Amino acid sequence: FLYVARNAKDCMVSYYHFYRMSQTLPDPGTWDEYFENFINGKVNWGSWFDHVKGWWEIRDRYQILFLFYEDMKRDPKHEIQKVVQFMGKNLDEAVLDKIVQETSFERMKENPMTNRSTVPKSILDQSISPFMRK
């Protein structure tokens, strides 16, 4: 398993904007209301804290590579190398550099396959908030 954990505050903000744009999820209410629901695990997908803690506790019992989103942003090449090594593969430098380039936030934000721009407005209303914000 590859598990990517993200800072709770950033995850909360991201989920809030996703809830706002999603036409299939309940309205998140005000930021204060959503904050309370997130902290108490009363959001779709449940408690962030329980989820991350659960995976962290079993990381040594199973084949789990635990990664952190912030590390991926700071040094993507190093984190991709971890994934490659975890999978028992070898990639030459040119392929590794291409993966870093193609998986950059900027590139993915421009790509309709990852930015969800082809999803109908009736499902994700990106006039409310873009799927990939910042």
From TrEMBL:
Transmembrane segments: none annotated. It is an enzyme of class 2 (transferase). One of its GO terms (cellular component) is cytoplasm. The keyword Transmembrane does not apply. Keywords: Cytoplasm, Transferase. One of its GO terms (molecular function) is sulfotransferase activity. Its EC number is 2.8.2.-. Residues 2-134 form the Sulfotransferase domain. InterPro entries: P-loop_NTPase, Sulfotransferase_dom. The keyword Transferase applies. It is found in: Cytoplasm. Its main location: cytoplasm. It holds the Pfam family Sulfotransfer_1. Belongs to the sulfotransferase 1 family. This is Sulfotransferase.
